[in-house]
Amino acid sequence: MKNPTNLSETLLPALLLVVAGLVFIGAWRLPDTATADLVGPKMYPGALAILLAFLSGLLLMGAAPPHGGDAGINFPGIVRRFLPLVLFSTLYVLALPLLGFMIATTALLMACFYLLGERRHWLNFLIAAGCTLVTYLLFATLLGIQMTAFPG
Amino acid sequence: MLSKTFRVALAILAATTLVLVSEQVNAQQAYPTKPVQLVPAGSPGGGLDIHARAIEQALTVEKMLDKPFTVLHKGGGGGNLLTSYLVNQKGNGYVIGINSNRVLLNELMGTIEYGYKDLTPIARLTTEYECWAVRADSKYKTALEVMADLKKDPTSVTFGVGTVPSDDQFNILLPAKKNGVDYSKIKIVAFDAGGDAMAKLLGGHVPVLSTGFSEAITQAEAGKVRILSVSSPTKLDRVPKVPCWKDLGIDVAIYHWRGIYGPQDMPKEAYGYWIKKFAALVKTKTWKGSLEKFELFDAFLPGEEFKEMLAKDNEIYRELLGPMGMLKKGKK
Amino acid sequence: MDAIPLLMNGFSQALTAPNPLSALIGCFLGTVVGVLPGIGPSTTVALMIPISFAMNPATALIMMMGVYCGAMYGGAITSILINVPGEASSVMTAVDGYPLAKQGRGGVAMVLCQVGSFIGGTLSIVGLMIVALPLANLALQFGPAENFSVMFFALILAATLISESMLRGITALILGLILASIGTDLQTGIGRLTMGVPELLDGIDNVVVIIGVFGVGEVLWYAVSTYGKAEATLERIGAGRWIPNRKEWRAGLGPIFRGSLTGFLTGLLAAGSVLGSFLSYSFEKRLSKHPEQFGKGALEGITACESANNASTGGALIPLLTLGIPHSGTTAVLLTVLTMYGLKPGPQMMIDQAPLMWTVIASLYIANVILIVMNLPAVGVFIKILDVPLKFLMPIILVFASVGAFSINSSLTDVVLVLLFGVIGFFMRWSGFTPVALVLGMVLGERLEQSLRQALMISSNGGLIFLTKPISLVFLLLTAAIVAVDLLTRKKGRVADDSEG
User: Fold this and answer.
1) CB distance A48–C178 less than 8 Å?
2) Is position C238 within any domain?
3) What are C319-370's pLDDT values in tens digits?
4) Which end of chain B has a smaller Cβ tally under 10 Å, C or N?
5) Consecutive 10-residue runs of chain B (332 residues): their mean pLDDT?
6) Minimum-distance CB partner of C412 among A13, A64, A93
7) Domains and CATH numbers, chain B
8) At a CB cut-off of 8 Å and minimum separation 6, what does C306 contact?
9) Residue C237 falls within a domain, yes or no?
């Protein structure tokens, strides 16, 4: 498990094989139309799904030359950096409607700064709050995007 | 001492009750007491957004706006985002939405489980009319010639439309059906929005276009296309020579209408208020000016009548789309 | 032609107060919109409609033209600086621009892009004035069969964008095509592959996929790849110089002129700015003596792409101004605005409304001048972003990407999607897949499928329609020629690939 290179060769093709299956089922379940459009809504995504399944099958069997992975990517990095970032982002999306843009965004930024190695909380807070404010001014004030700044 | 405290408490209680009661009375006397959300089921710049802006503008200019509107766009999902938004606002008198017959079509086709019965139809406001157009050099001089070809072989004429399902499409299906054509076999090609379809007609890629009258009229006035028929119940003033379907002996009129919907169970006073307000709106000069600019026609139908029309159209669409396999399973 | 006096009259109108001010405001707003990911020029112009009620038509249209041009200029900036293309048409700018920034040449790239934008934008207006009518008629010749063949041609040509394994590239391309088929099917109105999410009935916005795969993907990549490296905590890209040297000018100028021509012509077609930027990039890579540098920081790539997407503005206005027919997007909103002022847009507009229309054309020249004057010094300011330590910059990119995605439809679903595509982008990169291929499939996919089906419905002889229509046949033959040339020179290419590692 120390060397994730093998996984990097097979993980995505395996996932794509699953995606291809789901797309095929999704396309298959579409209703049959009796209009003059003979190709219909099913055939195109269905054909692409078969093609995708075929190609990812080839990749799984090692038909493409190995790309060698990337030295910078290792399992501890994925566990300690990738997963937390995905978790923070998920919490952010959940928190946006509850806490409003200002609080949620400042919190997200502070958490990310901390994760990426800056331990001075006061500095993190200043930068996070400043960036949040600037982003809000740009999008909400200048471009008129309706965003809830604070709860309530 | 005790009695004094008691008396103070009683006084406070009485005062509170009075305030609450008076507020309630106030609310009954003057709906609306706060801004009302006006929600077009389209993005900024689209037809439904223009309706929202025109309503807001006319009410403001004519000084008929009791509380300001906040316009919120719920574009997307083919109008479904507005419908589900209104369904979630059940009983709220401070949200009204603008949408077209997609409320009916989306439920029939199964892209959403809610339909017009889950909303309060407040008023049909405007309509556009559809038309058949051919290139100026086309062999077709009248719509009946096209119809004759269709009768011989429904696949012999290809029509261009903006989207499917739409009134562009119904403007082909309904007249064809009345004429006994096997309408599900007619070749109807959807292009991106009206402008693209017009380009395909002008380029000679499709022989006949079924499109909004406003899309075709400037091209017709420039001599590029010929309008064969209009879908209005009587001839249109701007093209007095072009027959409507009834003139051609086909008993069909197609309205590309837009209407106002509220949430289900909205308070009676809000419902009544808006029917009255829109009835007054459609008589104003500002509103009529906007209609003229956008080639729209007044098609005001208040609450109950609007609802009856929806019920009737719903059945027409169901009968029309069923044989084409476009209905959601179980909706046949 | 008495175009010159009309144009002069247009200039004098456009330069009468308050019109220059409105041009300036429009250009500034447009640049901001271009720089910020997500919200695009068409939405911005639409949001200006209520404000424009209070202005006279010329003033409002001039401001909107400023927004339209400005957005194209601005798109290059975030692509280069933070790998977040604001619009679909600047994807290829990010592909080479961001590596250039990492090499300390971000400023050079930005300057050349602004110059390319100016030349492309200006040349396309000249083209708009001189050859509008014949080109409008040419545009009408493009029916479904022709459109399909062009899309097919672009897809095959762009296969050269796939730098590493061809098999992986094609897989990513197919995935992009599948993503493009999500949503309501145009021909039948049936929702496809929406998984019950109503927002997906409109399909996934291209920009959401692009911001996710590029922007968020890069953030995740940075975070993981720097894990456990002590020196990473201080790392920053660094601004570097921003004045191009003579060699860089020479590298950039040829592609600018070729890109302008490609962009102007593709602008005539719907989805023109995206098509133009992909096509001109592919042309440059094929013409180049060092194609292996493309994707790793080739100035030719970004200047071709930026001049093409700016040149598409002039091309896209031709059908609107001469025929009264808009493509979707910004020109469609402009049509609404014209209607709102009671101008009756149509084939007669250039005649009935000649003074106004020439004012608009003059304002396009003015907008381009304002933009280059405004943006060149701005490069010196923007470049400072690269001095921000990456541990701060990367999370900020994450926020920008999320808010940008939200701004498109004010929908949290888009924020979820942008993060999801970030994860996909990360895994694609880890597994050696080219994100560009995915994006290419995504942006061309919908038109590819629909034009194929439209053509087959219209055709009376099935698939033969693609061979019997002359324009379609030409593009198919070109495609075949490219494939043949590639097969013949394949061996040579493979050696080059191998030597690179």
Assistant:
1) yes
2) no
3) 888 888 887 678 888 888 888 787 777 888 888 888 888 999 999 999 999 9
4) N
5) 56 56 53 88 83 89 86 81 89 91 89 88 94 96 95 93 89 93 91 80 94 90 94 94 94 94 92 92 92 90 92 91 76 44
6) A93
7) 36-127+258-324 (3.40.190.150), 130-248 (3.40.190.10)
8) C72, C75, C76, C90, C93, C113, C116, C117, C120, C259, C277
9) no
Q: Which of residues 3-42 of B touch C (CB under 8 A)?
A: none
Chain C: nearest CA to A122, how far in angstroms?
Answer: 14
Contact B205 C144 (CB under 8 A): yes
Taking alpha carbons only, the member of B139, B295, B141, B129 closest to residue B218 is B295
With respect to residue C131, please indicate whether it lies within any of the assigned structural domains. yes
Number of domains in chain C: 1
Supply the range of the domain harboring residue C354.
3-232+244-500
- Cβ-nearest to A116 among C394, C432, C457: C394
> Can you name the residues that pair with B71 across neighbouring β-strands?
B38
Please state the rounded mean pLDDT for residues C169-173: 91
| CA-derived radius of gyration, chain C | 22
Note whether residue C25 is domain-resident: yes
As beta bridge partners, residue B133 has: B209, B227
Shortest Cα distance, chain A CAs vs residue C215, angstroms: 14
The helix or strand, by DSSP H or E, that contains position B275, with its residue range, turns out to be helix B268-281
Annotated domain spans of chain A: 5-60, 75-142
Taking residue B239's Cβ as centre, other Cβ atoms within 10 Å add up to 16
Per-residue pLDDT at C448 exceeds 60: yes
Q: What is the dihedral of CA C372, C378, C379, C384, to 10 degrees?
A: -170
CB contacts of B189 in chain C (<8 Å) are 144, 187, 454, 457-458
Given B109, B204, B224, which is nearest C347 (Cβ)?
A: B224
Closest residue in chain A to residue C416, using alpha carbons only? A93
ipTM of the complex: 0.93
Residues of C with CB below 8 A from A11's CB? Answer: 427, 431
pLDDT tens, C279-313?
A: 999 999 988 888 888 888 899 999 999 999 999 98
